[in-house]
UniProtKB/TrEMBL annotation, chain A:
GO BP terms, alphabetized: iron-sulfur cluster assembly
Organism placement in taxonomy: Bacteria, Pseudomonadati, Bacteroidota, Flavobacteriia, Flavobacteriales
Organism: Lacinutrix neustonica
UniProt family annotation: Belongs to the iron-sulfur cluster assembly SufBD family.
Listed Pfam families: SUFBD_core (PF01458), SufBD_N (PF19295)
Source superkingdom: Bacteria
Residues covered by the SUF system FeS cluster assembly SufBD core domain: 175-404
Official protein name in the record: Fe-S cluster assembly protein SufD
Domain SUF system FeS cluster assembly SufBD N-terminal: 6-167
């Protein structure tokens, strides 16, 4: 039985298990039908031309973890941003860990999707927002069909959330192969501000596939800063589907740091439903071996006077492969749009490759849209300059790569996170630079 | 020592070869520093032995500040000598001293290396690195070219202060005016070196 069949047959058991009367019953049933019809995406589809899921779909994944697993904080502390106070929503093999989490209902809701789906007091938010911005493509539908657990964050209006929120997913390796489908809903009301950090971490070499969906709603003048740390083990793969719906004057940013994992696909979609909106998408990808990272972005300018900024840097070594596919759509009504897109790449090895494709569909006539992509090697004259000052080749290379990715790093607003990512980059490059950029 | 010749004679090439640029292969002759043949050493290893090249055209490295660059360089040189990293306090003190000597503004130190620097700033930054790294042999490749008189004075004063009996400076230039400030011990016409 292949994975698709297994999932479709598992669906009935899943629905029986969680309550047929759930308000989500219809949405889930619809979604599994969509998935059953379209199946997993293949390379024949334009959007998946350079990314094949074949190698990761052949594993015999457990769809529902059989047992609850526990972890000790000291064993996984290093994966937390632990030097500052944060809210934490932690999952172990897809199950919520109250032991490792720190949630709240004090003025804001930082808690679990499963409880939000079942408790009447959240019903209105669920009805208004759940599955309202996620697209109905195959992978998002698959997630919707099995959606039951994940992070639920609701920030009512005029709240400045003092502490960042961490969403962490651990997989213990107690299953031979595990499929996880977290579902996050984040609603940020008028004038509110929140910072969120998301990380997926497999603790063994057993195969893990995560197909996650995150819906984010930035209402009027909301500020949402979202950071994704993707630095997983060599057998862990991630398909991240993030959908952001923005209202007037909201500022939403997503930073994606992709340093490890077998295959990572980031589907990041921004919809600007209002005026004077700012959308920012930035990323640093540093991978080697046979790793694959695919950034597929969309920003849809629907109304006038909005901005979008995209800046993705990639450094590819060994036989690593990268994809950047950035689509910008500007509706006829969206005059005075400012849309910028940049994708710069460095290939450090002859076997590494990157496919980069900007796609601009502009229907308005008074807009500023720019895009640029570069693929190059490290600057030899800069290398000689640094080495002539006594900096060894490896450090010189690292310093150049740091410099290359610096403008993405410099827009990270949480200093401790910036420091942590700087260290991750240094580790990844195998150097100790002794300073933070 | 002063190296003086026409454009195209190969002065800068010679300087790059001594500093270890890999594009060149030495067919004849040896490069000996304090009795040791350094021909097979990589550029950074030559730097660790005390060779410093002040570039005619310093490379711009956006994203790396002057301070971070010099810290990395100094600690790399110390590591090569088996020393611990220089304590941050000492490093700051040294940076402050040398910057003052070369009349370098503090703001300048936090700017990206050579990015958007004026010609004078680039050259001064080279001499700043020279002052920080304290090499045994410094090669100044047209450090005086196209500098205004004030910048030239500052650069020359910097070099004069750094000269000691334990180090040597090779100056490559087209102009006599630098000699009003730096007094070489010996002249050498490059064409003679080639013979």
């Amino acid at each position: 039985m292949d994975l698709k069949e297994k999932l479709v047959t598992s669906f009935l058991a899943f629905e029986n298990d969680i309550d047929m009367d759930s308000p989500l019953h219809d949405i889930r049933s619809e979604a599994i039908k969509t998935f059953e019809t379209v199946g997993f995406p293949s390379k024949k589809e334009e959007d998946w031309k350079y990314t094949s899921l074949k190698s990761i779909l052949k594993e015999d994944y457990s769809v529902f973890p059989r047992q609850e697993n526990a972890l000790e904080y000291k064993d996984v502390k290093k994966y937390f941003l632990h030097d500052i106070d944060t809210y934490k929503i932690v999952f172990i093999d897809g199950k919520y860990s109250s032991h490792l989490s720190q949630t709240t209902h004090d003025g804001i809701d930082v808690c679990l999707m499963s409880s939000a789906l079942n408790k009447p007091k959240y019903r209105l938010i669920i009805e208004n927002y759940f599955n309202k911005v996620a697209t109905k493509d195959s992978l998002a539908s698959l997630n919707t069909a099995f959606s039951n657990e994940g992070a639920y964050i609701h920030i009512p209006k005029n709240k400045m959330v003092e502490k960042p929120i961490q969403i962490l997913h651990f997989s213990t390796g107690n299953e031979a192969a595990l499929l996880l489908q977290p579902r996050n809903l984040i609603v940020v009301d008028e004038n509110s501000h929140v910072q969120i950090i998301e990380r997926h971490q497999s603790l063994t070499d057993n195969p893990v596939l995560t197909n996650s969906v995150t819906e984010i709603f930035g209402n009027k003048r909301a500020i949402v800063d979202y950071y994704k740390i993707q630095n997983d083990n060599g057998n862990a793969s991630l398909i991240d589907n993030t959908f952001i719906n923005q209202k007037d004057q909201s500022h939403c940013s997503v930073h994606t740091f992709s340093f490890g994992g077998k295959l990572i696909r980031n589907n990041l979609n921004f919809y600007q439903n209002g005026e004077r909106i700012d959308s920012t998408m930035k990323g640093i990808t540093i991978i080697g071996e046979k790793q694959h990272v695919d950034h597929n972005t969309l920003v849809h300018h629907i109304e006038p006077n909005c901005e979008s900024h995209q800046d993705y840097k990639g450094i590819y070594g060994d036989s690593a492969t990268g994809v950047f596919n950035g689509k910008v759509v500007v509706n006829k009504e969206a005059q005075k749009t400012n849309a910028f897109q940049a994708n710069n790449n460095i290939l450090v090895s002859d076997k590494a490759s990157i496919n980069t494709k900007p796609q601009l569909e502009i229907f308005a006539d008074d807009v500023k849209c720019s895009h640029g992509c570069t693929i190059g090697q490290l600057d030899e004259s800069a290398m000689f300059y640094m080495r002539s000052r006594g900096i060894p080749e490896k450090e010189a290379k690292a310093l150049l790569m740091f410099a290359f990715s610096n403008n993405v790093l410099s827009s990270v607003k949480i200093p401790e996170l910036k420091q942590r990512i700087t260290k991750l980059i240094a580790n990844k490059l195998g150097v100790n630079l002794g300073f933070d950029l | 020592m002063l190296l003086w010749d026409l454009t195209g004679a190969g002065k800068s090439t010679l300087a790059s070869v001594i500093a270890g640029k890999e594009e060149y292969e030495v067919e004849k002759g040896e490069i000996i520093l304090e009795g040791e043949d350094i021909e097979d050493l990589a550029a950074e290893e030559r730097a660790h032995k005390g060779i410093f090249l002040s570039f005619q055209y310093p490379v711009e490295i956006p994203g790396v500040s002057v301070t971070n660059f010099i810290k990395t360089a100094i600690n790399a040189n110390r590591k090569a000598k088996g020393l611990e990293d220089m304590p941050a306090k000492d490093m700051l003190k040294m940076i402050k001293e040398k910057a003052e000597m070369l009349e370098i503004d503090r703001k300048f130190l936090s700017r990206s290396l050579n990015e958007g620097f004026s010609r004078g700033e680039k050259k001064r930054n080279e001499i700043f690195q020279l002052a920080m790294l304290e090499p045994k042999l410094a090669i100044l490749d047209e450090t005086d070219s196209r500098l205004d008189i004030d910048a030239l004075r500052i650069v020359a004063n910097g070099v004069n202060k750094l000269k000691s009996k334990d180090n040597a400076v090779i100056v490559i230039t087209h102009y006599q005016r630098l000699l009003d400030y730096i007094v070489p011990i010996s002249f050498m016409f490059y064409t003679m070196v080639k013979l």
